[in-house]
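Need tokens for this chain, all 156 residues.
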Amino acid sequence: MRKVSGLRIAPTMMPLNPEFQRVGRPAAEDNVSNRFELFLLGPGEKKVTEETDTRIPSASVFTFKKEDHTLGNLLRSRLLQSPHVLFSGYKVPHPLVSEFILRIQTDGSLTPRQALLNACKELVNDLSILSREFTKEWELRKMVGEGVDGAANGTH
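Here are the structure tokens for all 156 residues:
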């Protein structure tokens, strides 16, 4: 039991107040980054950096800052659909750091950078088609839903 302003409070009933936090031990929230740090680039920070892999011909390693598995897996799978890409793989070095490393090896007919740019253009095209089709279906469902609701209410 702990005395607070003349009241006796059991440890399990203590309010979540900074004055009651344990001294010398950080709270669990101190270990987590601010959410905006997960997607906003810092001053002078580049979104993508390329490093040529000198051990393997026609290969490069790209580091994407402030991104995660969502983009990494999309790019990897799209790159593997290209006949000129021999290898494409990514890894996230640490789950608390929002970055991934993408390794690309091509057959030499185009550079890894060109393969990545082509994959990005194809993905943007696919996502715009998905968005257009989804919006079209959504609008059709809304029209059908309004027609059914209007008929049920006798206002149609």
